[in-house]
Amino acid sequence: MSRTVVVTGLGAISPIGSSADQMWQNALQGVSGVKALTDEWVAEYDLPVYIAGRISHPVSESEFITRVEAKRLDPSGQYAVHSARQAWKDAGFSGEDAEDSEELDPERVGVSYATGIGGVWTLLDSWDTLRERGPRRVMPMTVPMLMPNGSAAAIALNHKARAAAQTVVSACASGTESIHIGLELIRSGKADVVITGGTEASIHPLPLAAFARMQALSTRNDEPERASRPYDLDRDGFVMGEGAAALVLESEEHAKARGARIYAELAGTGVSSDAFHITAPDNEGEGAARSLREAMESGDFAARDVVHVNAHATSTPVGDIPEATALRRAFGDATDDIAVSATKSMTGHLLGAAGAIESVMTVLAVHDHKAPATINLENKDPKIDLDVVTEARDLPSGQIVAVSNSFGFGGHNAVAAFRSVS
Amino acid sequence: MADQNEILAGLAEIVNEETGVETADVQLEKSFTEDLDIDSISMMTIVVNAEEKFGVTIPDEEVKNLKTVGDAVSFIENAS
Question: Measured between alpha carbons, how far is A244 from A400 in angstroms, rounded to an integer?
Answer without folding.
Answer: 26
